[in-house]
Specification:
Two copies of one chain form a homodimer. Chain A has about 575 residues and is mainly alpha-helical. In chain A, helix 21 (about 475-490) links the parallel strand 5 and strand 6 (about 495-500). Chain A has helices at about 1-5, 10, 20-45, 50-55, 60-65, 80-90, 100-120, 130-155, 165-175, 180-205, 210-220, 220-235, 265-295, 300-315, 325-335, 340-355, 365-380, 385-395, 395-410, 415-435, 475-490, 510-525, 535-540, 545-550, 560-565; strands at about 75, 325, 435-440, 450, 465-470, 495-500, 530, 555. Chains A and B meet through helix 8, helix 18, helix 19, helix 20 and helix 21 of A and helix 8, helix 18, helix 19, helix 20 and helix 21 of B. Chains A, B: It is found in: Membrane. Chains A, B: Keywords: Membrane, Transmembrane, Transmembrane helix.
Chain lengths: ~575, ~575
């Protein structure tokens, strides 16, 4: 069982058969063709040689086949991680330098170690700390950054930088150097890609293809763009006209690489590796869950961490770069009918064959075409809907999203994601730190208690019934004290306070301390403190302290029971 | 009104009279005598010249008189901030150097700016993010660190460092150099202080003094220790025997100092200043609130930030060091009967007079005595009770406390407080990220619903009633989805799911997205989603989105209403 948990391949391999292999083979071949332009493009986006993208699409896929739980996830270099990799490495070394390559391997290694450790310690829940608006804002802003960074490639000018503040001036000052042939190639591929994406499926459908196949072919636009433009570039020898082309890609299988053990380099890359791991995991696991749900399968987030971690470790030792489950390659894998992770292994073999034999064919591929491929695929991540939803629904969610977007654009990906996460946690704590509370009274003719400000209710002058609508914990412990002290300061005739805990799901040690303090202070003021409707788990916990012994009043099962007990008796004055 | 809010002196000065002045004068004079040894001691603890402690006890007190809201808080250098100041400055410069002095001023300035800004932006609630166990653990560990750092002074050897890892070896290697006369003076004062603190009040009471006065005199032990040992030191000329003494303290009023504007220095000190500000604020405001409550007064945490900020700004411009409300000096001020912040101004004048005229009298005061003063006052902060309470009550609170203590001792004050805060927030989010939820059923003969696993209840096979005991927000949005998908996967006969929201105090945008997704997925599975017992504020918020329009089912006011509506009718099959 333990073996099956950590090696999910054991759950499906014994049942593997020819039918499944047939489906996986088809999907694997389609993915192979698709990922070649993407892999080259993302390596260049990260400031690495194009071949690194191919290496990262071979052995990491085999590792995921062994350790991953999603049946359809396709692992490899992805745009966001490429952007984050470039941002993490550029302060350390110049793109293209030996140190830069080394640092990319270290980043993949650290990311792999972090992911595997998080998986083994079952820390997958950490991904939940990224709220939807923050993820959405981060992805949208990253997409804009990536597009801006590709504008240089599309225009044939050199634009560098990892924030809009760096990119925009760099683009503007080089507008006079636009290379028209490059622009023509870039704009042409962009148009081809947009047209195929938008109208390809419909047109092919009209031509008599079945809808699934038409959809799949429409998605392979990048392959057509690459083939056509490479042929044009070769035929007209565009390189001599000054069009930047991919150039020599070393032929052969991935090399065995050993990431440098350099303490100061590791130290510098630790935080970027952590951020990269979490972002990659979130991107991968949300997609994996969505697709698994469509087929009523399940994935295990903690084992996914192990699978992605193993992929990154393997990438570090085979000349690669940080990888995760890629959006577009996974969708294609799914649509092409992949049934098991074996499809990934087949794609890995395909990429290996191409790397081994066919890289010279890519020599004339213009970089501008790769820029167009990235741009068209990344712009789908810009999510205006979430921005609108957050604005209409919750200003604090909107604030977290807006800060994430602005900081990502202006300060870079790391600042953006850190600020977004910190802000959403801080805003949540702030909201829960001033819980809604209501003094309630009895609805006539019922056993229900409602707020005295919203309803016509019966009250008792010497008893206050206070309902707290939040778990009691450190962030609101002091607020609770304030609320109660204000209550007794304003109603000197009070003899009893009943704290209604129906919405209290947790009382932590800070809040317990506050309850002790409240109990003591109320006692000084000759007011008895009672609790009502304390939930089972909360009550169990309170019994671990001596609070219930020191409590001046009682714990009532229901508010009505407290009412019956504390109301003046007919025979009393 | 606005002027009164930001200048609280306007609320009490118009009503000031001779009776109040009499009380304040007495308290001010007693505090003056008390703070002299403390101020010297804390400056030396921070690695600064002794006179800096005196300067920091003059003008900052006047600033607090203008801007502070507590009637009895006494501002000045305190042990914890002195420790944090030393830890922040020692990586930057050698203690005693000109740069070190400059950096202390910059630290006070930054701290002042941060506190004032937090006050103006009403960010006082940030202090709530420090949970009681973390504060308590931090104070205990700091007290141990301070005691360890004073052992060197008490033994007459030089021990340096800001963590136990640095201090302990440094002490052990110099054990053979113990200076016996210093040890005798140190141990003697330690005993005097402990005896006066423990038995002074009782003994003086027996001698016929009234209890209040006896208590006050017992607290002035440090003054006696200083006077007696200074006389001995002077009489026997201990300095020539090798006992470290305070030495020359420049006579005169505080100088006007201008903190250096050095961008890199400011940058290095920004985070330490932030931590120091928050810790100082928490220490000061908790004490201020406790004492205000004793006299049924109130303080305003946000205005306290302004008051403490102003004090630190003034300290930066008058040769001082970071200050905040001090525990022992405030208690003495309170016990001596201070009625208004004017008592602080009187103490400031007293300290100014002493600095102006009487510093030569302090020449022979042995440093060991100051070490004894610090040790006795700081060890009261070690709080074993909270450690025990946290252990018994909540393992996650205990974990946060233990990590804070260990990291403070071994890695230093900054690492300790940052780790403690992060861990308590992370643990809280973790706990709320896997909310308790229960499938419930109807208790026979009632309208109450209880968990099917804990009670004998009626259920409907085609309807699941699920109660979620937590607010729905980003950290548990995905968990909610998992819970619901598992529920429908395990019960294929389900037609309706009723989500009971009685304990849901908040639904944020992430959770709303999850509700959309759940609604859509349940629809695909031909299951209708209903809500029940949605609270008013949550409902108001939901109406800001179109979720209620897309919801496949209804929103029921009570779970029982849903039961009545969804149970099979007698006339149905």
């Amino acid at each position: 069982m333990l073996l099956k948990r950590y090696l999910p391949i054991l759950t499906w391999l014994p049942h593997y058969n020819a039918r499944l292999f047939g489906a996986d083979l088809l999907a694997g071949l389609i993915v192979t063709i698709m990922v070649i332009p993407q892999s080259l493009a993302y390596a260049i986006l990260a400031g690495l040689p194009a071949v690194v993208g191919l290496y990262a699409s071979i052995l990491p896929l085999l590792a995921y086949t062994l350790f991953g739980t999603s049946r359809t996830l396709a692992v490899g270099p992805v745009a966001i991680l490429a952007l984050m990799t470039g941002a993490a490495l550029s302060p350390i070394a110049a793109p293209g330098s030996e140190l830069y390559l080394q640092a990319a391997l270290v980043l993949a290694l650290l990311s792999g170690v972090i992911l595997v450790l998080m998986g083994l310690f079952r820390l997958g829940f950490f991904a939940n700390f990224l709220s939807h608006p923050v993820i959405s804002g981060f992805l949208s802003a990253s997409a804009i950054l990536i597009t801006a960074s590709q504008l240089g490639n599309l225009l044939g000018v050199s634009a560098s930088g990892h924030t809009l503040i760096e990119l925009v001036p760099s683009l503007i000052t080089s507008l006079d150097k636009i290379h028209l042939v490059t622009l023509a190639i870039g704009a042409g591929s962009l148009m081809l890609l947009v047209v195929m994406r938008r109208w390809g499926r419909m047109t092919l459908g009209r031509l008599g293809l079945n809808d699934g196949l038409a959809g799949l072919i429409a998605k392979t636009g990048p392959v057509f763009a690459v083939v056509i433009t490479t042929l044009i570039s070769w035929g007209f020898d565009l390189e001599t006209l000054g069009v930047a082309v991919v150039g020599d890609i070393p032929k052969g299988l991935p090399p065995l690489t050993l990431p440098a053990f350099d303490a100061s380099l590791w130290h510098q890359l630790l935080i970027p590796a952590l951020l990269l791991s979490v972002v990659g995991f979130v991107e991968s696991v949300s997609m994996g869950q969505m697709l698994a749900a469509k087929r009523r399968q399940r994935i295990s987030p903690n084992q996914e961490l192990v699978g992605l971690g193993a992929s990154n470790l393997v990438a570090a030792f085979s000349g690669g770069m940080p990888v995760t489950g890629g959006l577009s390659r996974t969708v294609i894998n799914f649509d092409a009918g992949a049934q098991t992770p074996a499809a990934g292994s087949i794609a890995a073999c395909g990429v290996a064959l191409i790397t081994l034999l066919m890289t010279p064919l890519l020599y004339h591929l213009p970089i501008a075409v790769l820029g167009a491929v990235i741009t068209v695929s990344i712009l789908t991540l810009v999510d205006i809907r979430m921005l609108r939803l957050a604005w209409g629904y919750s200003r604090s969610d909107f604030a977290a999203m807006a800060v994430t977007i602005l900081l990502t654009l202006l300060e870079g990906v790391e600042a953006g994601i850190v600020a977004g996460v910190s802000l959403s946690i801080a805003l949540f704590l702030y909201r829960t730190s001033r819980p809604h509370s209501a003094v309630v009274g009895l609805m006539a003719g019922s056993e229900h208690f409602r707020s005295v400000t919203r309803h016509e209710v019966e009250t008792l002058s010497h008893v206050a019934f206070l309902r707290i609508d939040e778990s009691l914990y450190f962030a609101n412990a002091r607020y609770l004290e304030d609320t109660l002290y204000n209550l007794i300061a304003n109603r000197p005739e009070l003899e009893h306070v009943v704290l209604i805990c129906s919405a209290v799901n947790l009382i932590d040690a800070s809040a317990l301390e506050s309850l002790y303090a409240i109990n003591a202070r109320l006692k000084d003021s000759k007011v008895t403190l009672h609790l009502a409707e304390v939930k089972g788990p909360v009550m169990d916990r309170l019994k671990h302290s001596d609070f219930l012994d020191t409590l001046t009043g009682r714990v009532f099962l229901s508010t009505y029971a407290a009412w019956k007990e504390l109301r003046p008796r007919p025979d009393q004055p």
